[in-house]
Amino acid sequence: xxxxxxxxxxxxxxxxxxxxxxxxxxxxxxxxxxxxxxxxxxxxxxxxxxxxxxxxxxxxxxxxxxxxxxxxxxxxxxxxxxxxxxxxxxxxxxxxxxxxxxxxxxx
Length: 107
Hints:
The protein is mainly α. It has one domain. The chain has 3 helices and no strands. It is elongated.
């Protein structure tokens, strides 16, 4: 009986980790889009008739926000028993998220 309970608990933790990864990627993609729009505006860097609309502060906010939300998801959702492991992985996830958004923003 206890073997099936452990398997169910492990399966639940893996499902938590799976949805965390999906949500983190979706948030990163939204942050990339927001950062690109904040860099040059909706009509592009040429202005396209509406004039150039750049907001560097919003770009930084999108990049930092993506990493913080990713870290919060990994830290606060109970996908692992040890909070220390979740904090370390959350910090690594935040750095990976910042790198992902920054590299795709620059492209």
